């Protein structure tokens, strides 16, 4: 089943969060970023062409104008193919792993898959960015040497940059699946104990942990 | 055990007349009544597990049969490698699997049944299939079923407890993951770059499930040897069951490679022995050989060719890639060199170059003389003191005079020398570039001498200035040392050009030497061979049916390909990067435009 909600990002742009529920163990979140607007495109093109025309009146060389057109076209293509991200997708499959896909405006897709064995936890961190305090969702990877340590932090939804309300939605669903995954993996090792929440809090100083408050709901 | 066939199944259990039964009527042993398939027991302490079944896409349209593959208990996943079709004799299947297990060290077993039928299976077939579970006991026992012509799949995984304990046989949910068997077989997984303070051995611990899948498929080649047209007792379905893939050219090349490699290896060993003989170790010759970049490049190429044509096989995929990269790089080099040669000869550029050389040399010498006159005199100049100015100026002028005389002496022979040098382009573009670099070095040696003197003086003055700056920031202002020298910047233009051109040529040669062309070509044309990881796509899903995923290979980005498979060069690569070149020019450190041996280890 599928549902769509509308949120906003940290700069105030509109985001659409699409959630697809394939099965209790497979969930997909798709966050689409604000599109490139006609206004900004026109503004950039006009600036470049005005500058080129100014140079042309100085140098009287018509190559400058053709070069300006060329640069604008190439710049636009390069921007659409390498820079502008259209939507970002997070696919969580219980007992397999977490996959992040970024689709660019030109259709290119870049995918990263992290196996469940490497995932320690999914948390919301807060960070100070210039004059703002922002929240971001990230995956904590296990340290192969130390079982409860963390080796790497992988931030999610870096181009969309949603606000906290959107992040909480994603976070809750991720934690449901991760809890189920941890329950089955510990039962494999034997024993019937319930996973204590303290297990999930055992990593050191990375910022505020929102699941502390969420557990009280 | 008798012959088990679908005919027997459809006619009901224990039927005496199957179509082709060779021996005495055998009865398929009656399966014990199936214990009621229970879902997760409310009283059980185990939450329902999700099992993963990796299914090859080539078997999705195969006829019904048995699933053969490997069960990985740590990941609770089953990797299906092939499907055994009816009719078969269980003993022969077990023998085949034992053979494969021995040959490939992979624990291949029968995992379950596969049913590809037109409509829902009948009750009797269901019992029959479960009966097979008793013959080939495996926990858990998978039962995959697909309706012909539709996309609805169903699968069950049961834990067969055996006739003794009919209770507590649980059913687990199964997730189907489709994979392309050929691509996974040929692909090589590159784990993400480990953190700097981890050793290489640690990566195996975190490699985990997907690496196990790739490993299983890659090592089970023995299972894929038999195809549909073989007369063996067991009929398998896998990616090569339509016939083994092979190419005539590849087979011919493999057959011819042995003798050719042997011949070339002997030839190369003769050449290396000749070059290592005592004559070349005498002092003046060995000094010259070590300084000329042409000799370095030739030695490097000889080493590479020896490695490529060595008669022992490569042990690991990384070594194979390295050999392939070297071979492609050598071939491209020779091709570019031949193109250069044909272009030079077509336009008769050598003659024109030889004719133009003398007037250019004369012109340069004249300009230098003017410059030195200007430097020796007032108002601008070296500004050390009048006598020192005169000494240095006269010294440089004498250098230029010697050089001009040398050029005029050589002028009748220039064209012949250049023609022979041009022939060396047959050995490769890098050799031609190295020779060009050496010629530039020899022709502009006098300029290099000026550069050395000037750079040393400039260096001294920079040190003086920096101590002055420290002093200024610190305590006292020494009036005696007030002077700013601008002389060195004037001489820089010509020197900068020459030294920069030499540095550029060296960097270009290093680039051609070290770029892994075969790996880049492979990444471009067969991206599934170099895998950075996998990506999953969820296929059409209906409620009540198992979840189906498609696993595709995520290719390695180009930057990582270059970084992983870069060939080691023998030149001064770390010393002569662009940044260090500029830094040395600015601070007046000496740049040695010839190669320094022994600085870089392979």
TrEMBL record, chain A:
It comes from the Eukaryota. Residues 89-158 form the Phosphatidylinositol N-acetylglucosaminyltransferase subunit H conserved domain. It holds the Pfam family PIG-H. Pathway: Glycolipid biosynthesis; glycosylphosphatidylinositol-anchor biosynthesis. Keywords: Membrane, Transmembrane, Transmembrane helix. GO terms for biological process: GPI anchor biosynthetic process. The chain crosses the membrane at residues 36-56, 62-82. GO terms for cellular component: glycosylphosphatidylinositol-N-acetylglucosaminyltransferase (GPI-GnT) complex. PANTHER family: PHOSPHATIDYLINOSITOL N-ACETYLGLUCOSAMINYLTRANSFERASE SUBUNIT H (PTHR15231). Belongs to the PIGH family. This is Phosphatidylinositol glycan anchor biosynthesis class H.
Automatic annotation (TrEMBL), chain B:
Keywords: Membrane, Transmembrane, Transmembrane helix. Residues 7-18 have a biased composition (Low complexity). Residues 1-45 are annotated as: Disordered. GO terms for biological process: GPI anchor biosynthetic process. It comes from the Eukaryota. InterPro entries: PigQ/GPI1 (IPR007720). The chain crosses the membrane at residues 326-344, 391-409, 421-444. GO terms for cellular component: endoplasmic reticulum; membrane. The keyword Repeat does not apply. Residues 22-36 have a biased composition (Pro residues). PANTHER family: PHOSPHATIDYLINOSITOL N-ACETYLGLUCOSAMINYLTRANSFERASE SUBUNIT Q (PTHR21329:SF3), PHOSPHATIDYLINOSITOL N-ACETYLGLUCOSAMINYLTRANSFERASE SUBUNIT Q-RELATED (PTHR21329). This is Phosphatidylinositol glycan anchor biosynthesis class Q. The lineage of its organism: Eukaryota, Metazoa, Chordata, Craniata, Vertebrata.
């Amino acid at each position: 089943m599928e549902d769509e909600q509308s949120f906003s990002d940290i700069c105030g742009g509109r985001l659409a969060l699409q959630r697809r529920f394939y099965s209790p163990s497979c969930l997909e979140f798709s966050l689409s970023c604000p599109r490139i607007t006609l206004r900004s495109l026109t503004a950039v093109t006009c600036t470049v062409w005005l500058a080129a025309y100014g140079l042309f009146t100085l140098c009287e060389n018509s190559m400058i104008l053709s070069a300006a057109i060329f640069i604008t076209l190439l710049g636009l293509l390069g921007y659409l193919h390498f820079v502008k991200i259209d939507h970002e997708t997070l696919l969580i499959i219980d007992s397999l792993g977490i996959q992040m896909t970024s689709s660019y405006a030109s259709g290119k897709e870049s995918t990263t898959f992290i196996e469940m064995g490497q995932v320690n936890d999914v948390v919301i961190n807060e960070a100070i960015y210039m004059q703002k305090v922002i929240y971001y969702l990230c995956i904590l990877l296990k340290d192969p040497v130390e079982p409860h340590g963390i080796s790497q932090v992988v931030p999610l939804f870096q181009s969309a940059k949603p606000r906290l309300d959107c992040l909480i939605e994603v976070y809750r669903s991720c934690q449901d699946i991760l809890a189920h995954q941890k329950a089955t993996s510990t039962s494999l090792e034997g024993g019937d104990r319930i996973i204590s929440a303290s297990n999930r809090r055992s990593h050191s100083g990375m910022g505020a942990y929102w699941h502390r408050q969420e557990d009280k709901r | 055990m008798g012959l088990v066939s679908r005919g027997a199944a459809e006619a009901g259990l224990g039927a005496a007349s199957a179509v082709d039964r060779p021996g005495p009527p055998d009865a398929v042993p009656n399966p014990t009544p199936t214990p009621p398939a229970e879902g997760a027991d409310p009283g059980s302490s185990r939450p329902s597990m999700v099992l993963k079944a990796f299914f090859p896409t080539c078997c999705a349209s195969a006829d019904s049969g048995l699933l053969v593959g490997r069960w990985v208990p740590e990941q609770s996943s089953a990797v299906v490698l092939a499907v055994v079709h009816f009719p078969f004799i269980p003993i022969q299947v077990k023998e085949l699997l034992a053979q494969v297990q021995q040959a490939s060290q992979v624990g291949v077993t029968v995992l379950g049944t596969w049913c590809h039928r037109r409509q829902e299976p009948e009750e009797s077939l269901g019992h029959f299939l479960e009966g097979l579970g008793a013959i080939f006991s495996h926990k858990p026992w998978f039962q995959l079923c697909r309706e012909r012509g539709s996309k609805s799949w169903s699968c069950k995984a049961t834990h067969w407890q055996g006739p003794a304990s009919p209770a507590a046989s649980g059913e687990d949910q199964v997730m189907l993951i489709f994979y392309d068997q050929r691509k996974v077989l040929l692909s090589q997984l590159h784990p993400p770059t480990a953190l700097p303070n981890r050793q290489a051995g640690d990566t195996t611990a975190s490699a985990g499930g997907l690496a196990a899948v790739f490993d299983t498929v890659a090592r089970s080649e023995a299972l894929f040897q038999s195809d549909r047209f073989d007369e063996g007792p067991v009929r398998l379905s896998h990616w090569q069951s339509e016939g083994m893939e092979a190419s005539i050219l590849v087979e011919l090349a493999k057959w011819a490679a042995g003798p050719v490699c042997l011949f070339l290896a002997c030839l190369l060993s003769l050449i290396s022995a000749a070059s290592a003989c005592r004559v070349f170790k005498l002092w003046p010759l060995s000094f010259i050989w070590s300084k000329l970049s042409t000799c370095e490049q030739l030695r490097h190429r000889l080493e590479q060719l020896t490695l490529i044509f060595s008669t022992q096989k490569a042990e690991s995929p990384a070594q194979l890639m390295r050999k392939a990269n070297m071979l492609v790089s050598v071939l491209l080099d020779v091709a570019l060199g031949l193109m250069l040669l044909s272009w030079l000869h077509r336009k008769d550029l050598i003659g024109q170059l030889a004719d133009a050389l003398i007037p250019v040399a004369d012109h340069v010498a004249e300009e230098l003389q003017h410059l030195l006159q200007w430097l020796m005199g007032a108002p601008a100049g070296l500004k050390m003191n009048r006598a020192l100015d005169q000494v240095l100026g006269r010294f440089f002028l004498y250098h230029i005079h010697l050089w001009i005389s040398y050029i005029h002496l050589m002028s009748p022979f220039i064209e012949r020398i250049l023609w022979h040098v041009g022939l060396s382009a047959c050995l490769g573009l890098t050799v031609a570039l190295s020779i060009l670099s050496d010629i530039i070095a020899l022709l502009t040696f006098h300029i290099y001498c000026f550069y050395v003197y000037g750079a040393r003086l400039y260096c001294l003055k920079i040190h003086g200035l920096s101590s002055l700056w420290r002093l200024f920031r610190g305590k006292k202002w020494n009036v005696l040392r007030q002077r700013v020298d601008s002389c060195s910047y004037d001489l820089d233009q010509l020197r900068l050009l020459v030294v920069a051109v030499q540095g550029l040529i060296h960097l270009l040669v290093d680039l051609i030497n070290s770029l892994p062309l075969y790996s880049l070509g492979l990444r471009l044309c067969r991206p599934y061979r170099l895998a950075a990881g996998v990506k999953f796509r969820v296929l059409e899903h209906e409620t009540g049916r198992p979840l189906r995923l498609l696993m595709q290979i995520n290719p390695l980005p180009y930057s990582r390909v270059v970084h992983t498979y870069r060939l080691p060069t023998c030149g001064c690569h770390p010393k002569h990067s662009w940044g260090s070149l500029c830094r040395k020019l600015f601070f007046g450190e000496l740049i040695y435009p010839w190669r320094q041996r022994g600085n870089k280890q392979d």
